[in-house]
Amino acid sequence: MKRELECEKSLPVTFIYVNEKTVHKELFNALKKNEIVVVALDGVIGTDRLVIPFLNGTMALSRGPVSLAKRTGAALIPEFAVRESDNRHNIHLDPPIALDGDDAIERALNIFAERFSEMVKTHPDHYARFLYTTQKYPVEDVGSIIGQREK
Description:
This protein has 151 residues and is an alpha+beta fold. Helix content is 40%, strand content 17%. The chain contains five helices and five strands. A three-stranded antiparallel beta sheet has the order 1-2-5. Helix 4 (104-122) packs across helix 5. The termini are far apart.
């Protein structure tokens, strides 16, 4: 955690840490200022999740970031960081996901999961630790983020 904090401090960005009392206000203010907001759909914070197909099982993704984008009109652009052989990172930005219609949030999360599964298949070494950790140490009140698909 100490190393992670040092890395965060070295980046030219502002981190908004999850605090139930202030996070929504901070996110809305950042979007109002036309700033880029990056939120992990597969993170372990929050309980408002939708379980959707992922690889050979299921994945519980947070509805929050998609709902925020829909409410504010912000573009929802999937982003994936890939570590290259020279140890530098390449940021992949996918096309924006449309957020129109009553089923926009569910559709967006399914599209994200499809794109995420392609990244995992292409770069399994980047995600092996994440997949292992979410299975071995399920999140309280949510259960394992990655589950087995019912047959």
